[in-house]
Amino acid sequence: MVAGGSFPPFTVLDGDGRMTGVYPDALASIGRELDWTFQYMAVPWARAQDMVRTAQADGFITVPTPERQNYALFAKQPLVSGLGMVIVHAVDSPRRSEIERIASYDDLRPFALVDYIGNGWGNAIWESWPTVERVRDLRTLVRMIATGRADIALQPRSVVEAVARQAGFEGQIVFHAATFAERSTSGVHFGLRRNFPGAEASMALYEEVQARFIARRGVDDLMERWS
Predict the structure, then answer these.
(1) Where are the alpha helices (DSSP H) in the chain?
(2) What is the pLDDT of residues 5-34, one digit of tens each?
(3) In the beta sheet, which residues pair with residue 99?
(4) Number of domains, the chain
(5) Could you tell me if 136 and 101 lie in one domain?
């Protein structure tokens, strides 16, 4: 399994460089019931996706965009439903009143928007927008928002809050509801490369166990633990 480094509370690198968080813990629990072992590797997110595409890695947990579905099978039920998408902006942004009136994707167009490289969900929306700057990681994204080098970002609130605390920008960014974005994402799903031996049979087994794990509040408990 691959992930794009820290994406708290979903993936978190501990002091020894080991991957922890909601996703690894959920897969560890599901894997115990299946007698499977999941090993995680942290690499830049764009590279992580390419590793699954080229069979250098077996899977990931992410939004099943059409591009990703070309090379990976995805569980029908999301592991985590709803990511808590919000508009992120600087607390002292001179355009704050305009930002607070944003109610659709089209309303984002007049603003300088920042996103991280490899965000396939975002790319599907603003691939051709001239006002989007792509940066290497979430820490850089948060820094650009806090220092006024970009107007807005559209990201999960829990992730940005955690990164802002780690980067020393807590209190310098604020959040505005983005219900239009939350409605358009089904959540994140377990994905397995299509050319993995026995991929379809493995996915069917995984889906059964994941459904039971979610039904007994396994994901809810992990979200509470890691948030």
Answers:
(1) 22-34, 45-53, 66-69, 96-99, 120-126, 138-146, 157-167, 179-183, 199-215, 218-226
(2) 888 899 998 888 889 999 999 999 999 999
(3) none
(4) 2
(5) yes
Say if pTM beats, i.e. exceeds, 0.90.
no
**198 plus 165 within the same structural domain:** no
Strand partners, 87: 154, 176
* Domain ranges, residue 210: 2-81+186-226
Which is higher by pLDDT, 13 or 151? 151
Reading the block at residue 104, the tokens are 């659709």
Strand-strand pairing, 72-74 and 132-135: unpaired
CA–CA distance, 22 with 187 (Å, rounded to integer): 14
15 is written with which tokens?
A: 């002091």
User: How far is residue 174's CA from residue 63's CA, in Å, rounded to a whole number?
Assistant: 25
Distance, in Å, from the CA atom of 113 to the CA atom of 137, rounded to the nearest integer, reads 14
Of 48-57, 77-86, 166-175, 186-195, the one with minimum mean pLDDT is: 77-86
At residue 175, φ and ψ (nearest 5 deg) are -130, 145
